[in-house]
Amino acid sequence: MAVLDAERQEKAKAYARAMLCVSLGELCLGAAALLLLLFTSLSAGLRDLLYFPQPVKVILYFAVVAVSLSIVSAPLTFYGGYVLPRRFGLLNQSLGNWLFDVAKRGLLGVLLGSGVVVLVYVLLASVPDLWWLLAAACVVLLGVLLANLTPVILLPLFYKLEPLADDGLRDRLESLAHKARTKVRGIFTINLSSKGTTGNAALVGLGNTRRIVIGDTLLDRYSPEEIEVVVAHELGHHVHRDILRLIVIQSVTVFLGFYLAHVALNAGVAVFGFNGIEDVAAFPLLAGVLGGFALLVEPLSNAYSRRIEAAADDYALNLTGNPEGFVAMMTKLANQNLSEAWPKRWVEVLLYDHPPYFRRVARAESYREGEK
Fold first, then answer.
1. CB-CB contact of 189 with 162 (8 Å)
2. Which 3 state secondary structure label does DSSP give 215?
3. Residues sharing a CB contact under 8 Å with residue 251, sequence separation 6 or more, in sequence order
4. Does pLDDT of 220 surpass 90?
């Protein structure tokens, strides 16, 4: 019987506190950088240095700001992304491999970000009254495209995905999917062990790329019954159409955020002396409004996410009829991933997108009581 490891829980609390401090530091640093650009002559000065056509100017401005912020925040990124996970035994990558992954993520971010920013500024100049509507629609479409491409292009840039090799386990999981009256495009393993020790499984992709991926760090530590519960949870997301629901919710958020940015940019022309809303020097205001709005709505987004995760837990319990396996799986995951079992209420409300351990176990206990 799996039991919570008291020593691991103490480490989980320490790790959570340290990571929260890092996150707050990164947030404050980013906000300070935007405010510095906005309330000094730095943004206008950078714009004036770039004697290029508008699209090239926008790309260079964005690249300079993004790279500069990355350099300034590098100590926090290194401490939170490498030092702390290594110290707590969650990361086993070499420094070189970790830096290579950071470089790949940074390059992807700059490329995608530059494309989005150029598009936004083209729309700002050409359709100043409707730019926010068209830009939000394009961002939503890009998000859907990336969700579709994640398992076939993006994930393979960092991990190796292979069809589940265990014939017996695969047959068992396919039977479970048949019992759920649903289909997935395959069950794959992902080599999480190449980078760390944490365990995870997920439903990724859309349409013809939708598949279930199971970390190899689960396969070598969990029984078939426990893995079955994990997959049943992911099937619950598919049956409930949770990915579609999340896309709708996120789309509404994107449209609202861009509309607020539209209002702020028009007001900012007079307040900050920009050369119109299409002035690239106003980028810090645009980024600040979008980022600030996303930060404000995150607790609501997390609350909705916790709700659909709880519904997927209920589905897994009903589909497998195995509350003991569910509790064992949750307990092993809490031990393995250094998940805090009983976080403070404000931390749960503001930061958790999954129900904490104690609530998920309570659902299994309620299910077990209902069986009696």
1. yes
2. strand
3. 136, 140
4. no
